[in-house]
Request: fold
Amino acid sequence: MNFENCWNDQGEAVAKRVIIESDLSGDPDAETISFGWDGKRYAVDLTEEERVEFARALKPYLDVAEEINSGQGVIPVQSPGPDPAKVRRWAAENAIEIDGKTISEKGRVPRPFVEAYEKTMSESAEA
Reply:
């Protein structure tokens, strides 16, 4: 669970609770895990139980693998953008389809849905 600083209408700082949901189960209180495979970097939101299962599956391979320090530092795992719940609600209420697919109820919000949401919100703000 994360907390972000927000401001109310009076300009006072208030806390906003951000709940990360598992990309697998949709359960709350997940954390983002990043890993590399076959030259690519990945990030997935997992609950503690899912993280333990993931680590258990990788353990035999990690025990014999050589760790490589790329020197590139940590990759960002969450980009700034609109609230995923708002994007999902907007897409569902407006029956938005992209490439013949509707938005899923769990997991990461695909970038094309975020872009369509942002475009619609900026157009409605300009109107």
